[in-house]
Amino acid sequence: MQRPAGPARPAGVHRRGAGGGGDPTTERRACRLLPPGPPDEADGVRNVEVVEVVDLVKCYPGAAVRALDGVSVAFGPGSSTAVMGPSGSGKSTLLQCAAGLDRADSGRVLLAGQEIGSLREPRLTLARRGVGFVFQAYNLIDSLSVWHNVLLPQRLAGVRPDKAWAREVLHRVGLDGRGHERPARLSGGERQRVALARALAARPEVVFADEPTGALDLAAGREVLGLLREAVDQLGTALVMVTHDPAAAAWADRVVFLADGRIVAELHDPSVERIAERMTAVSAR
Ligand SMILES: Nc1ncnc2c1ncn2[C@@H]1O[C@H](COP(=O)(O)OP(=O)(O)OP(=O)(O)O)[C@@H](O)[C@H]1O
């Protein structure tokens, strides 16, 4: 299932929620928000974003500046978004808050239309069931086999794992027959593929990935990006990916740029060059 090395970003990826069809010259604009308006006239059903954050503010205790300073952004089904910005601009904080792993001081986070701000355990865990995570450090448990790592999030959430799907996911990420191995015996790229399989095994509506290729060499990084792209294209998963790498960001349909805890720019269907250019401009602010 690996995508062969090819162009930095596969073509034909305009999708709902990804800003597809947006005017590429309109690079700096507010992110699209779920309109609080009436139901969709065509079918009487209101479109629900997979994840929506509204006016998020977050200040860590003792910090002089806000890590997030009024961020509003929505992620639709089958969309892929790269989040970029200088170090300390709030990228990881946005991911953590949008995923319900950390709480903002104010603002709203909605997962599949459900506001999670006031939820306590176990309801919060239930609301997060549709959320998968892929972190640079993999967060794999070395005392467990690949197979048990992949099933762990569902077991922790009290959900009976779908083993047939877990096997299919391991197959898709190219780890057929490797389920019995310990993560420590795998290469960095293979461990990242396990992390991806673990995220996808729960059939998430959204995958949050924090620098998923940061620790990988070029070939392994491309492979992981290809797999993420497949999840978006074939499974309709929403992908939100923090990256410092313009080539990785170009795999996404949309790039949002953060600076000082705010969204300051947005590119749709961008090239590596335009991303790098914009990144330089944002960093020079
Ligand atoms: N646990 C924490 N306690 C205090 N301050 C924090 C904490 N985590 C992040 N910060 C601060 O919040 C701001 C945003 O940090 P964040 O990690 O979200 O940025 P980032 O854009 O992901 O940075 P990087 O690219 O370096 O990972 C920074 O000023 C950072 O120092």
Set out the fold topology.
Blueprint: E1 51-58, E2 68-75, E3 80-84, H1 91-98, E4 106-111, E5 114-115, H2 123-127, E6 131-135, H3 146-156, H4 163-172, H5 188-201, E7 206-210, H6 218-235, E8 238-242, H7 246-249, E9 254-259, E10 262-268, H8 272-283
Parallel strand pairs: 3-8, 3-9, 6-7, 7-8
Antiparallel strand pairs: 1-2, 1-4, 4-5, 9-10
Helix pairs in contact: 3-5, 4-5, 5-6
The structure holds adenosine-5'-triphosphate.
Residues 60, 63, 67, 85, 87-93 line the site of adenosine-5'-triphosphate.
How would you summarize what this structure contains?
The strands form two sheets. The protein has a six-stranded mixed sheet, sandwiched between helices. It has helices spanning 91-98, 123-127, 146-156, 163-172, 188-201, 218-235, 246-249, 272-283; strands at residues 51-58, 68-75, 80-84, 106-111, 114-115, 131-135, 206-210, 238-242, 254-259, 262-268. A hairpin with a 2-residue loop joins strand 9 and strand 10 (262-268).
* Biggest sheet overview: 6 strands, mixed
**Average of pLDDT:** 81
| Gyration radius, in Å | 18 Å
Helix content: 25-40%
CATH topology: Rossmann fold
Q: List the uncertain runs.
A: 1-45
Shape: globular
Strand order, largest beta sheet: 6-7-8-3-9-10
What binds here, in terms of ligands, is:
adenosine-5'-triphosphate
Domains counted in the coordinates: how many?
A: 1
In CATH, what is the homologous superfamily? Answer: P-loop containing nucleotide triphosphate hydrolases
Assess the beta-strand content as a share of residues: 15-25%
CATH architecture: 3-Layer(aba) Sandwich
Q: Work out the number of β strands.
A: 10
Cα distance, first to last residue?
A: 41 Å
- Give the helix/strand class: alpha/beta
CATH class: Alpha Beta
Q: In DSSP terms, counting alpha (H) and pi (I) runs of 4 or more, how many helices?
A: 8
Q: List SSEs in N-to-C order.
A: EEEHEEHEHHHEHEHEEH
Pfam family, one: ABC_tran
Keywords: ATP-binding, Nucleotide-binding, Transport
Region (Disordered): 1-43
InterPro entries: AAA+_ATPase (IPR003593), ABC_transporter-like_ATP-bd (IPR003439), ABC_transporter-like_CS (IPR017871), ABC_transpr_LolD-like (IPR015854), MacB-like_ATP-bd (IPR017911), P-loop_NTPase (IPR027417)
